[in-house]
Specification:
By secondary structure, the protein is of the alpha/beta class. It has one domain: Vaccinia Virus protein VP39 (Rossmann fold, 3-Layer(aba) Sandwich). Helix content is 34%, strand content 31%. The strands form 2 sheets. A 7-stranded mixed sheet has the order 3-2-1-4-5-9-8. The chain has a two-stranded antiparallel sheet with strand order 6-7. Helix 5 links the parallel strand 2 and strand 3. The longest helix is centred in the middle third of the chain and has 11 residues. The chain is globular. The two termini are 23 Å apart. One of its GO terms (biological process) is methylation.
């Protein structure tokens, strides 16, 4: 279940968040994801935010569905980028063998750690065989709410590797780095790619 206070924060700050993360061109991680999907493939932008990444996927010729728990983010994704976006929480994912790829870029970090095994199983079921999962998470330990009100779960790379393998994924790529988000403080992160 997505944290209500987190959703409310994104509802309030949707436009600010859009201005913070929107780019003129896809970054290296998104380019790698797009290039790994079959031509004309179907992908899900899971926790799409304002829709900037999904728009690049559409431009690349992919069929894109987008979901977000924040209704204001869904509105931005539709109005700003013309995405096929719907309001949906992670646990409501129900498709089977539908997607060639799922882009979960710094979205699942708002789910409780206790929910992650079930969510990864749902994602595996939703992906076609050999489908690709892109996962962006913050590096750290435990769970806590930051000063803007958003709930975060933090992970170590080996912890995520074990979770993915338990959900029958094969991890294929790991990148770590640090970035400054809406909170204004630099935080370490990881980008993990895995195949179903």
């Amino acid at each position: 279940m997505t944290d209500i206070q987190t959703i409310q924060t994104y509802d309030k700050k949707a436009e600010e968040y859009k201005n913070l993360i929107s780019r003129d061109a896809p970054d290296a991680d998104l380019t790698r994801f797009i290039n790994a999907i079959p031509v004309g493939g179907r992908v899900l932008d899971l926790g799409c935010g304002p829709g900037n990444s999904g728009a690049f996927m559409v431009q690349a010729g992919l069929k894109v569905d987008a979901t977000d728990a924040s209704i204001e983010m869904v509105k931005l994704a539709k109005e700003s980028f013309g995405l096929n976006a719907v309001q949906q929480q992670f646990h409501e994912l129900s498709a089977v063998d539908e997607y060639d790829g799922i882009w979960a870029n710094f979205s699942l970090l708002h789910a409780k750690k206790s929910e992650m095994p079930e969510l990864l199983n749902k994602i595996h079921t939703t992906l076609k065989p050999d489908g690709i999962l892109h996962l962006g998470l913050m590096i750290g330990t435990g769970e806590r709410r930051e000063f803007l009100g958003r709930f975060y779960a933090y992970y170590q790379p080996d912890e995520v590797d074990a979770l993915l393998r338990a959900a029958k994924f094969t991890p294929t790529h790991l990148r770590t780095g640090a970035s400054t988000g809406m909170s204004g403080t630099e935080k370490p992160f990881m980008i993990v790619t895995a195949r179903a």
